[in-house]
């Protein structure tokens, strides 16, 4: 039986780590750093975790439970918590938590990921399933903007399908390591450039063609160099939204729940509205904590 008042929620991803400590149902300490899974040797997780626990300024109840989610449960993490194959009810997450043996003074568990395993497509997620559980409503569609954006189809609490689009990673690679972003210089916020890029992305069937088009526009002096990032961001996000709305045949009357951080959510929301689609925002941190609470109560 888990204690739902004294718990530690841990979002341990590839690049970042976030911790929330709750005692008597109140958050008494938070911690965030960039000490992600990719920076760890498999044998170093326990030492890192015990060091982090020692930083907490509050005495912790002996009946505290630790629930971890994210890449910490992958095959390069602390303990492999495996995947639940979809379609699967989100309520099954609590039934398949993986215990971390000898993890310190408190019982520690890792949430499983979700998997699509053929026959036509293959996909995996880790971390978003916890946010999804916390954000769950009666709606069918959930989007998690980010490095690897997730589009998830849910029906009556069952995850039926999901897709991953590498929008954030493509933006980083193209803007920093490709000829498109070379000599970009100082960038400025420009809403119109973002919307213009989104229009091109919305209508484009060959994304790489439109990416190079941005470089050609700069060389032809038809696109100010300081708006490149805004144009590229709009192009990639606009293309993602167009392709996924078409893939899932989502109509303008259906509401899509966007889960994540405020800056990215605002960008996605502006394009949903620009193209005539409905959406509602859900704070990613609140969704994660709510997801952990639901896991503890199941």
Describe the structure in brief.
The protein has about 300 residues and is of the alpha/beta class.
Helix content: 25-40%
CATH architecture of the largest domain: 2-Layer Sandwich
Q: Could you list the spans in which at least 5 consecutive residues all have pLDDT below 50? A: none
Rg estimate, integer Å: 21 Å
Count of DSSP H/I helices: 8
Amount of beta strand: 25-35%
N-to-C order of helices and strands: EEEHEEEEEEEHEEEHHHHEHEH
Mean pLDDT: 95
The CATH homologous superfamily of the largest domain is named 2-keto-3-deoxy-galactonokinase, substrate binding domain
Structural class: alpha/beta
CATH fold label of the largest domain = Nucleotidyltransferase, domain 5
| Largest sheet geometry | 6 strands, mixed
Protein name: 2-dehydro-3-deoxygalactonokinase
Organism: Citrobacter pasteurii
GO molecular function: 2-dehydro-3-deoxygalactonokinase activity
Keywords: Kinase, Transferase
